[in-house]
């Protein structure tokens, strides 16, 4: 069985379309989308309509939760723009999505970690910055989950980790945004250093689950210019090069 894993599209429909074309070229039995699909200054409505037409399994990320629950004074600029573009039809779809689910008895899907949609799974943020999580930290976030394969997103960092118990945890990276900064729990930046769209393929073989992290080029310059016209220079820079200003 081969599964294509996408997440953190953030309204970047051209990046998503490039990823879908690559998936079709390589072949996959199914596609799963781990959330944070719409938030941002790009094409949230068009991206929602595209995703709603796909026969995929979709999760809600923290931004879907925020779009549904936060009021006007609480929303970030990215959530505020997406919220203003969506109609009742798209909000009804978002309300059906869960942050975590068992795709199969041996496969768990989550946006952040199994217990929290905004917790980093495979990275840890300290006052000194972000680093790869230790095996002990990963184990604590995994908790009592016994699935052989755990698919997660949220951090936008492509990473595949085999635990000491043999479980495989895969973050495919972000389809639509290759750099961002955050203040929680300490100021830090995510920078993948390339504008390419990211996704993953996971495949069950006789030896167990294996993963392939994939980078796909697309017309990132057009999306950077769109962000610039929407008065989001931070996004424009991130989309153009995969680094923060």
Molecular structure report:
The protein is of the alpha/beta class. It has a single domain (about 1-240), classed as Metallo-dependent phosphatases (Purple Acid Phosphatase, chain A, domain 2). It is about 30% helix and about 25% strand. The chain has helices at about 15-25, 45-50, 60-70, 75-85, 90-95, 135-140, 220-230, 235-240; strands at about 1-5, 30-35, 55-60, 100-105, 105-110, 125, 130, 150, 160, 170, 180, 190, 195-205, 210-215. The strands form 4 sheets. The chain has a 5-stranded mixed beta sheet. Helix 7 (about 220-230) packs antiparallel against helix 8. It starts with a strand and ends with a helix. The model has no long low-confidence stretch (mean pLDDT about 100).
Question: Concise description?
Answer:
The protein is of the alpha/beta class and 245 residues long. It is built from eight helices and 14 strands.
| Beta strands, count | 14
What is the domain tally?
1
What is the annotated CATH architecture?
Answer: 4-Layer Sandwich
CATH-defined topology: Purple Acid Phosphatase, chain A, domain 2
Instruction: Identify the CATH class.
Output: Alpha Beta
Number of helices: 8
What is the radius of gyration computed over CA atoms, rounded to a whole number of angstroms? 17 Å
**What overall geometry do the principal axes of the alpha carbons give?**
globular
Q: Secondary-structure blueprint of this entry?
A:
Layout: E1 2-6, H1 13-26, E2 30-33, H2 44-52, E3 57-58, H3 62-69, H4 77-85, H5 88-95, E4 100-104, E5 107-110, E6 123-126, E7 129-132, H6 135-142, E8 149-151, E9 159-162, E10 168-171, E11 179-182, E12 188-191, E13 197-205, E14 208-216, H7 220-229, H8 233-241
Parallel strand pairs: 1-2, 2-3, 5-8, 8-10
Antiparallel strand pairs: 1-13, 4-5, 6-7, 9-10, 11-12, 13-14
Helix pairs in contact: 7-8
């Amino acid at each position: 069985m081969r599964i294509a894993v996408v997440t953190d599209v953030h309204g970047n429909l051209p990046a998503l379309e490039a990823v879908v074309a690559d998936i079709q070229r390589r072949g996959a039995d199914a596609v799963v989308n781990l959330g944070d699909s719409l938030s941002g200054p790009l094409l949230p409505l068009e991206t929602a309509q595209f995703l709603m037409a796909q026969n995929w399994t979709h999760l809600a990320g923290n931004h879907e939760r925020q779009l549904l629950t936060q009021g006007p004074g609480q929303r970030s600029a990215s959530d505020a723009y997406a919220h203003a573009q969506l109609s009742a039809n798209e909000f009804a779809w978002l309300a059906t999505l869960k942050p975590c689910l068992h795709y199969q008895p041996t496969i768990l899907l989550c946006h952040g970690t199994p217990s929290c949609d905004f917790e980093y799974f495979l990275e840890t943020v300290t006052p000194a910055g972000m680093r790869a999580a230790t095996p002990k930290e990963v184990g604590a976030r995994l908790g009592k989950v016994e699935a052989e394969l755990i698919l997660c997103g949220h951090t936008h960092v492509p990473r595949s980790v085999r635990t000491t118990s043999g479980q495989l945890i895969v973050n495919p990276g972000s389809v639509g945004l290759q750099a961002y900064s955050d203040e929680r729990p300490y100021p830090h930046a995510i920078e993948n250093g390339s504008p390419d769209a990211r996704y993953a393929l996971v495949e069950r073989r006789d030896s167990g689950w294996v993963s392939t992290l994939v980078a796909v080029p697309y017309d990132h310059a057009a999306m950077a210019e769109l962000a610039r016209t929407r008065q989001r220079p931070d996004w424009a820079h991130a989309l153009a090069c995969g680094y923060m200003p």
